[in-house]
Design brief:
The complex is a heterodimer of chains A (79) and B (467). With 79 residues, chain A is mainly α. Chain A is 56% helix and 0% strand. Chain B has two domains: 2-377, Rossmann fold, CATH 3.40.50; 383-466, ANL, C-terminal domain (GMP Synthetase, Chain A, domain 3). An eight-stranded mixed β-sheet of chain B has the order 6-7-5-3-4-8-9-18, with helices on both faces. In chain B, strands 11-12-13-14-15 form a five-stranded mixed β-sheet, with helices on both faces. Classes of the chains: A mainly alpha (79), B alpha/beta (467).
Chain lengths: 79, 467
């Protein structure tokens, strides 16, 4: 599985949404599933998928699909 | 005037928004007078709330001009709001200019403040409102029940005073909004701080967003508040490692905090000289009934503490007799000036006087230790606390039953996790969407499980205990 596939899967699993919804433009609160509750599910899923521990600053900065890709670079994950 | 807003320095800032907008106590007083001149007193007004200054202004101005508002979340399902409008027929609505509720479209705008408008909904006769009735809040707005809690001016003022006293609030306080203002706990934070002349930091950003913490740090917020789930998330966010030098105290209410989590936050607070208050309350008691003094937070971990100033707890057994021994479980009864007038299920109830006379039977089962500290051990009624919201399982069942008439269902579960047993296969996902949409709660809180038959006893009563 490529990192992009893993990333998409983490979104789908973490937010409990269909993979087809996971794409560019997906943002915090743009769908009902991505609220504060969903957000922490998403963080946990991304951390599991790439075996990393995100800093608080990155957890609160993870505001969109695109932003997550940018943040993951800090953890040496290229998507 | 309401919450003594006219006794503050007129130029003192009452609220500051994340976009830099402010409002002073003097402006709040002036707007309240304008509203009174415009619409008079004792109207029923629906206020569709957001955590913004514009929304806050509507709430305060209605209360300070002796109009009675029902506070509803602006994000509440449109159909549920429409149902309440049909039931109660408010004269006016304070709503955001982008409000999408069809019933409220094309109405006369009488007054505007920022992005909010005061619109006339009906011009028929005013309802008969009991003279001490100040405010209406929903009990479980999320299930669309028309049942409202009637709060009096004395209830609100007494509770705000008690809270300000035990939290040791003064006019240097800057709480930041972390809960909806139509939610009794969120509102109590606003009320108690307006009473002491504090400055409310208003933001619609969530504490999982960067903008929230930027605002927190830039403006030097002095306190945070949250339901059990908030504290779980804060922990996962590695809150303990954040640098928040202006933080003076933290409060928790809206359900039972797991003892482990309670201990961790109490320890964190102790080390940093922050006061951490675990508290207990209900909308029926305006907001607050008890608090655990911060110095006891570790030694009495898991306790809801002692009654607030002016309040009193007792425990009663099945026969209604008062329990005087320690460590015996009974139903918790609260006595105090903040016990609300009663419920309303329709407009005729808004004329009702005080039906409780200061005594609230809480529906929570509790015990008391030898030092007089109380512990909640269970509930008498069938409801769950989901992300701090009271969700009545019987109401959920009837809501689901109304939508899905072909199947039977039964709701059970634990706090933050409701199990919905249904007798129809294949529509689990759709049901999840429906219940999550209606309640406005994340679908992670619900689990839909297929069962061939709902277990019942001989008289046809559902046997929840075997599910």
């Amino acid at each position: 599985m490529t990192n992009l596939e893993k990333y998409i899967e983490a979104f789908a699993e973490g937010l409990e949404i269909d993979k087809s919804v996971v794409k560019e433009g997906l943002e915090y609160q743009s769908i009902p599933e991505w609220d504060s509750v969903g957000h922490m599910g998403l963080v946990a899923a991304i951390e599991d998928a790439f075996d990393i521990m995100m800093d608080t600053d990155d957890i609160i900065d993870l505001s969109s699909f695109e932003k997550g890709i940018e943040i993951l670079k800090k953890y040496e994950v290229e998507i | 005037m309401y919450l003594d807003i006219d006794c503050k320095n007129r130029d003192k800032i009452a609220a500051l928004s994340d976009n830099g907008k402010t409002i002073t106590y003097g402006e709040l007083v002036d707007i309240s007078k304008d509203i009174r001149e415009l619409i008079g007193e004792r109207n029923l007004v629906f206020v569709l709330c957001r955590n913004t200054i514009d929304s806050l202004v509507g709430y305060v101005a209605m209360a300070a001009s002796s109009n009675v508002s029902l506070l509803l979340g602006a994000e509440t399902d449109d159909e549920l709001i429409e149902e309440l409008i049909r039931t109660y027929s408010p004269q006016y609505v304070w709503e955001h200019e982008n409000c999408s509720i069809e019933m409220l479209g094309n109405r006369e705008v009488l007054y505007s403040y920022g992005e909010y408008n005061l619109i006339r909904y009906i011009s028929e006769d005013k309802p008969h409102l009991y003279e001490n009735l100040a405010l209406l809040l929903t009990t479980s707005g999320s299930t669309g029940s028309p049942k409202l809690v009637r709060q009096s001016y004395d209830n609100i003022s007494s509770n705000a005073k008690a809270i300000a006293s035990y939290l040791e609030l003064d006019d240097n306080q800057k709480p930041i909004t972390m809960l909806p203002m139509n939610y009794t706990y969120g509102l109590s934070v606003i009320n108690s701080h307006l009473l002491v002349g504090g400055c409310i930091l208003m933001t619609e950003y969530s504490y999982v967003q960067k903008q929230f913490w930027d605002f927190f740090k830039t403006c030097g917020a002095t306190s945070i508040c949250g339901v059990p789930y908030t504290y779980e998330i804060l922990k996962k966010m590695r809150f303990f490692r954040m640098e928040l030098p202006t933080l003076e105290y933290m409060t928790q209410a809206g359900g039972r905090l797991l003892p482990e989590l309670h201990k961790e936050f109490a320890q964190y607070a102790n080390e940093r000289n922050i006061r951490f208050y675990v508290m207990y309350g209900q909308t029926e008691a305006t907001a607050r009934m008890s608090y655990l003094p911060p110095e006891q937070s570790l030694s009495k971990c898991g306790s809801i503490g002692i009654a607030i100033p002016g309040g009193e707890f007792s425990l009663v057994d099945e026969n209604g007799e008062c329990i005087s021994d320690n460590e015996i479980v009974g139903e918790l009864v609260y006595k105090g000036d903040n016990v609300t007038l009663g419920y309303a299920t329709g407009p005729q109830d808004l004329a009702k006087k005080d039906e409780r006379e200061g005594i609230l039977v809480t529906g929570d089962m509790a015990k008391r230790d030898e030092d007089g500290y109380y512990y909640i051990v269970g509930r008498k009624k069938r409801f769950l606390k989901i992300y701090g919201n009271r969700v009545n399982m019987d109401e959920c069942e009837s809501m689901l039953q109304g939508k899905y008439t072909e199947m039977e269902c039964a709701c059970v579960g634990t706090d933050d996790h409701m199990k919905i047993y249904v007798t129809e296969q294949g529509s689990e996902d759709e049901i999840l969407d429906y219940i999550s949409g209606k309640t406005g709660l994340n679908r992670k809180a619900f689990e839909v499980i297929y069962i061939s038959e709902i277990p019942k006893n001989d008289s046809g009563k559902k046997l929840y205990s075997v599910l």
